[in-house]
Amino acid sequence: MIWFLIILSGLITFSMRFIFLTPAMPANLSPLMLTAMRLVPIAVLWTIVVAEIFLQNGAIAELSTNIRLYAALGAAVIVMVTKSVIGTIIGGMSLYWGLSYLLG
After folding, report:
1. Are residues 2 and 29 in the same domain?
2. Residue 19 half-sphere exposure, CB side, CA atoms within 13 Å?
3. DSSP-based three-state secondary structure for 26
4. Most CB within 10 Å of its CB: which of 11, 25, 36, 69?
5. What's the pLDDT score for residue 16?
6. At what angle do helices 2-18 and 31-54 cross, to 10 degrees?
7. Is residue 57 part of a domain?
8. Which residue ranges in the chain fall short of pLDDT 50?
9. Which pLDDT belongs to residue 60?
10. What is the rounded CA–CA span in Å between residue 15 and residue 32?
11. Quick one: which of 63, 64, 87 has its CA closest to 74?
């Protein structure tokens, strides 16, 4: 399931980028289309992250024992406080590894 989402997201993203290189591209895009194109990478990343957090072994993970969920919530707090991408990645992975060590 996750591979299907990754491939589908990649195809959608590629097609949205490739259309600029073809003669089929109109000269002026509507504001709605420009907004939609700005949101494509966020939507693609969001589907991958949500699937990775809430699905384990092809089934919905139990919330009480879902270490990934707790690490993601911690990473959300880190990004709100620090506004740093690198800090969030390091902090979120540290939380995940620490919780996996302590609880796993």
Report:
1. yes
2. 12
3. coil
4. 69
5. 79
6. 160
7. no
8. none
9. 87
10. 18
11. 87
Strands (E), the chain: 55-56, 59-60
Contacts of residue 91, defined as CB under 8 A and 6 or more positions apart, other chains included, come to 74, 75, 78, 82
pLDDT computed for residue 79 by the predictor: 95
CA dihedral 9, 13, 18, 19 (to 10 degrees): 100
Does 47 share its domain with 21?
yes
Cβ-based neighbour number of residue 20 at 10 Å: 10
- What one-letter code names the amino acid at 39? L
CB 78 within 8 A of CB 87: yes
Domain of residue 40: give its range.
1-52
47 in the same domain as 26? yes
Contact 95, 70 (CB under 8 A): yes
pTM (2 d.p.): 0.63
Q: How far apart are CA 84 and CA 74, in angstroms?
A: 14
